[in-house]
Design a protein that fits this description.
The protein is an alpha/beta fold. The chain is built from ten helices and five strands, in the order αβααβαβαααβαβαα.
């Protein structure tokens, strides 16, 4: 074969090889899509009893639903969620993780604004030394009257920080199944019902504001039925030692969350 034909044949073969590689193989080193997890202790993974030693005090767990879902999605996780966070904390310290390249955002926030941990602390005490009903009433008034505007601020800021991301707001489960099996707590059946109803109110309020922002919403209520505090298979811790673990999803509960959130992020 003349040399010119040999060179031409080689060029054609190399071109075909390069085109095949381009269209059948992802480029080496392609960056994973970005997933930013915002919010409070339910998002950081408090309750799982296993936390990263990052010095932040945020109690971020390798068993938290954002970590599980990032692995399932093959995403690069920016784990900003922090124990104790309120809407103001999300606005002031967490949104810097967002950018125009962010693909997914999840947010669990609002429970601390409503003082839900303080309500639970009040309601764990005997009726003669506490005023559980007043604490619940105060939280419900706040959820109806004040929380919606705070959530709107957060969701608007998320839209500004990650305008093309798929954003999903994640709610809170009902904690009780009507049984108080923990030594050291005095929840009455009526109090447990009212606390569950308040979780429902928090979810419906949050869902409404999320929908107004064009965000998805994950309601864990149905999935957690049969897995509340004192259930045979608990997904939520009862009164625990240390007390910070109390009334938060355990590892099984975080897996339950991850299943729901994955569906919402990929649907």
């Amino acid at each position: 074969m003349p040399r010119s034909r040999s060179v031409a044949a080689t060029i054609v073969a190399l071109t075909a090889f390069v085109l095949t590689c381009l269209f059948t193989n992802p480029a080496a080193g392609t960056a994973a899509e970005e997933y930013v997890a915002l919010g409070d202790s339910y998002a950081s993974g408090v309750g799982t009893r296993t936390y990263h030693s990052d010095g932040s005090g945020c109690l971020r767990s390798p068993a938290a639903y954002p970590v599980l879902d990032a692995a399932r999605l093959g995403a690069q996780l920016s784990f900003a969620a922090c124990s104790g966070a309120r809407t103001s904390d999300v606005l002031n310290t967490q949104l810097t993780q967002l950018d125009a390249e962010t693909e997914w955002v999840t947010i669990t926030v609002g429970g601390n604004d409503a003082g839900f941990s303080s309500v639970l602390t009040e309601c764990t005490q005997p009726w003669w030394s506490s005023n559980c009903d007043a604490a619940i009433d105060k939280a419900r008034t706040f959820i109806r009257g004040t929380l919606p505007a705070r959530l709107d601020q957060v969701y608007t800021a998320v839209l500004q920080g990650a305008p093309t991301a798929r954003a999903v707001v994640v709610g809170y489960p009902r904690l009780f199944n009507g049984e108080d099996c923990n030594a050291g707590t005095w929840f009455s059946p009526t109090e447990m019902t009212r606390l569950n109803d308040t979780a429902d109110l928090l979810n419906s309020t949050t869902r409404g504001r999320a929908s107004a922002a064009g965000f998805g919403f994950v309601n864990p209520t149905a999935s957690f039925v049969g897995h509340a505090v004192c259930a045979d298979v608990e997904w939520v811790n009862g009164l625990s030692n240390p007390v910070r673990e109390s009334y938060h999803p355990n590892k099984a509960g975080q897996i339950g969350y991850a299943d729901l959130v994955e569906d919402a992020l990929t649907s």
